[in-house]
Design brief:
mainly beta; 14% helix; 72 residues; 5 strands; five-stranded antiparallel sheet; Phosphorylase Kinase, domain 1; single chain
C-alpha cells in the first residue's frame, strides 16, 4: 500500500504481461456518501488524455463492493 485516506487506498501494482511495468491502483468503497470521487476523477482524466504532464488513466470501473482506477 502506498497510502490511504478517508475515501480509499492507493496500491502499487505490477502488470502480468509487461515486464517492469508498474502502476497505481486507487480504490474506494461503493458505500461512500455522495458516490465518492473516483468516478469523477476517471471522467476528468479521460478528457485530459494525451496531455503533457497529466497522469495517464489506464482503466477504471466498478465492482460490487468498490470502485477503482488504474493510473500510470
Amino acid at each position: 500500500m502506498l497510502g490511504a485516506g478517508g475515501c480509499g487506498a492507493v496500491y502499487e501494482v505490477a502488470c502480468l504481461t509487461r515486464k517492469n511495468f508498474t502502476a497505481a491502483l486507487k480504490v474506494e468503497a461503493n458505500n461512500i456518501e455522495d458516490g465518492g470521487v473516483l468516478k469523477l476523477e476517471a471522467e476528468v482524466l479521460a478528457k485530459l488524455k494525451n496531455r503533457d504532464n497529466v497522469i495517464r488513466l489506464i482503466d477504471a470501473g466498478k465492482r460490487q463492493k468498490y470502485r477503482y482506477v488504474v493510473l500510470f
